[in-house]
Structure to design on (318 residues):
C-alpha cells in the first residue's frame, strides 16, 4: 500500500504547538524529526551509550500520513482542518514559518522505520521499553513495561502520557476501579493494572488501538483488562458496556476537543469522590478545558500539572 506523506517544517520553538494542532485536527499518528542532542540525564534515562553527532539547525519536521486511496474530499477536509488548527496558533507562533509539503511513500517505510526512535525511558520508577529491545541495566526500575504500539498512537514518551503516569502514581491503589478512555497502545491501562487497579477497562474508537492494547497487555502478563471498541460519548450501547457509577479513577489522554464533550457524560460512569485525570491538552487550550471542567457542577478542581507546553487537569466528582 502506498501513502501520502505530509511534512510540516517549522522552528523547533513551534514543535509542541504544531503537534497540539495536529491532535486537535484529529491527526493522532505523526513523527517528529529534529537534530537536537539529548541531555546527560535523558541519555541515562533512555539507556543510550552512543549518541549520533548532529548539528542543530533549529528546524524540525513533523510528518503524518494518509492512505493513497483516501477520497480526495476527505483528504481536502483533513488538510483544511490541519491548516485551520495551525492558523488558530497565530497569537502564539509565527504561522508564516510553518511550511507544509507532500510526498509519497510505501507502508513499510514508515510503519517500521520509526522504531529506531522509540528507545527505553523512565517515568519515575517505571521503565518503558520497546518489545524488540533487550535491557540489561534495569537499576532503579520497580516496574518494567514492554510496549509495541504497532500503528496505534502512544508509546508513553510524549509529555501528555508522562503527565498521566505521574497522576496514576498518585491516585491508583490496590483494587482501584479504573477506566482508560482513548487507550491507544494500552500503556496507561497496563501500568494501572500492574499497580493493583482492578477492574481495569480500556476503550478506544479505533479497533486497531484496542487490538494493540490487548496484545501489549498479554505481553506484560496482564490478562484481566477489558477492552472495548466504541464511542462512549455518542454510543448508548458503548456507554452501557462501559458501566455506570463504576470507576474510582478515569484517565483520558486525548485531545482537548474530545475532553470537553467527554466531561459532560463521564460523571455518570464515576463513583462519588472519583478522580478524572485529563491530559493531551496543549496550553493554548488550557483555559477552555479548565472552564468546562470546573463549570460542571459534578466536579471540583483537584490539581493542575504542566510539562513543557502540555497540561493535565485533575478533577474530583463531588
Amino acid at each position: 500500500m502506498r501513502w501520502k506523506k505530509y511534512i510540516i517544517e517549522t522552528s523547533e520553538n513551534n514543535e509542541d504547538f504544531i503537534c497540539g494542532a495536529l491532535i486537535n485536527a484529529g491527526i493522532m499518528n505523526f513523527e517528529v524529526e529534529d537534530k537536537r542532542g539529548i541531555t546527560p540525564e535523558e541519555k541515562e534515562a533512555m539507556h543510550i551509550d552512543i549518541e549520533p553527532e548532529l548539528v542543530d539547525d533549529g528546524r524540525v519536521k513533523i510528518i503524518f500520513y494518509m492512505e493513497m486511496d483516501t477520497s480526495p474530499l476527505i483528504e481536502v477536509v483533513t488538510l483544511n482542518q490541519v491548516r485551520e488548527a495551525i492558523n488558530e496558533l497565530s497569537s502564539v507562533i509565527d504561522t508564516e514559518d510553518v511550511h507544509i509539503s507532500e510526498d509519497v511513500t510505501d507502508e513499510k517505510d514508515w510503519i517500521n522505520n520509526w522504531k529506531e526512535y522509540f528507545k527505553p525511558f523512565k517515568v519515575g520508577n517505571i521503565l518503558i521499553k520497546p518489545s524488540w529491545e533487550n535491557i540489561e541495566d534495569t537499576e532503579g526500575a520497580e516496574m518494567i513495561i514492554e510496549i509495541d504500539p504497532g500503528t496505534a498512537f502512544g508509546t508513553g514518551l510524549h509529555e501528555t502520557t508522562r503527565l498521566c503516569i505521574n497522576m496514576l502514581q498518585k491516585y491508583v491503589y490496590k483494587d482501584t476501579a479504573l477506566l482508560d478512555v482513548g487507550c491507544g497502545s494500552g500503556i496507561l491501562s497496563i501500568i494501572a493494572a500492574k499497580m493493583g487497579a482492578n477492574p481495569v477497562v480500556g476503550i478506544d474508537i479505533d479497533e486497531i488501538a484496542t487490538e494493540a492494547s490487548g496484545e501489549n497487555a498479554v505481553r506484560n502478563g496482564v490478562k484481566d483488562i477489558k477492552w472495548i471498541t466504541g464511542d462512549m460519548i455518542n454510543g448508548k450501547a458503548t456507554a452501557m458496556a462501559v458501566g455506570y457509577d463504576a470507576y474510582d479513577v478515569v484517565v483520558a489522554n486525548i485531545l482537548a476537543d474530545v475532553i470537553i464533550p467527554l466531561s459532560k457524560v463521564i460523571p455518570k460512569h464515576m463513583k462519588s469522590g472519583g478522580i478524572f485525570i485529563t491530559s493531551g491538552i496543549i496550553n493554548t487550550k488550557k483555559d477552555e478545558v479548565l472552564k468546562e471542567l470546573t463549570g460542571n457542577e459534578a466536579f471540583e478542581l483537584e490539581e493542575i500539572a504542566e510539562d513543557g507546553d502540555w497540561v493535565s487537569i485533575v478533577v474530583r466528582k463531588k
In short: The chain has ten helices and 14 strands. The chain has a mean pLDDT of 85. The longest helix spans residues 72-87. Residues 21 and 284 are 10 Å apart (CA to CA).
